[in-house]
Amino acid sequence: MSTLNTSFPSIGIIGAGAIGTAFAKNLARHGIPATLSNSRGPDSLKDLVRELPGIKAGTREEAAAKDMVFVAVNWGRLPAALAGLPDFGGRIVIDANNPIEAPLFKPAELNGRLSSEVFSDLVPGARVVKAFNHLQAQLLASDPGSEGGKRVLFFSGDDAAAKATVAALIARLGFSGIDLGALAVGARLAQFPGGPLPVLNLVQFG
User: pLDDT tens for residues 142-170?
Assistant: First the structure.
């Protein structure tokens, strides 16, 4: 079992579906603590977090109060999942969402906007970094070095310091992070559906 690594900013996770759980598993593998939350409350996560060293179940409000907040929620439920939370006050929020309406996987109507633009409106005061959305959950949860190199993970954002912090986390988790630039460019490239990069399992060697 890994020793807990408290050198990173505190991390909260809103959404315990496939992507949120995969992210939590990777954090646990590397000894990075986090608070995991969902819409059903901490009691519903007891069995899951029991298997994840360093990951504890919490409320949505507890997760949202951390220094870095990872959000991965079904697109149609995002407004409710984020409603009523205090202003993020310059803290980092990772947008790991894709504009797909479950359960039919129908593309959401964005009225010409990027999904990260819509998302940013739901997290006032946040420094948004788009990341962790373009890999399938099983790849995100697995060892990023299992194929001999480092699995590539794209990220983008408009705040250089926020991106640097997320890039450090990506590297600590064993991925090869590639900065796609500002949200207006990078989020479009990594958005699913529509972007050319999602679902690709790219590995960097050397």
Answer: 999 888 899 999 999 999 999 999 999 99
Q: What is the pTM of this model?
A: 0.94
**Full set of structural domains in the chain with CATH:** 11-196 (3.40.50.720)
Burial of 35 (0-12, 13-18, 19+ CB in 10 A): buried
Per-residue b or e along 110-143, where b marks 16 or more CB atoms closer than 10 Å to that residue's CB: eeeebbbebbbebbeebbbbbbbbbbebebbbbe
Q: 119 and 187 in contact (C-beta within 8 Å)?
A: no
Q: Which two tokens stand for residue 147?
A: 């194929």
Beta carbons within 10 angstroms of residue 48's beta carbon = 16
Q: Which two tokens stand for residue 5?
A: 């690594």
User: In this structure, what DSSP letter does residue 196 have?
Assistant: S
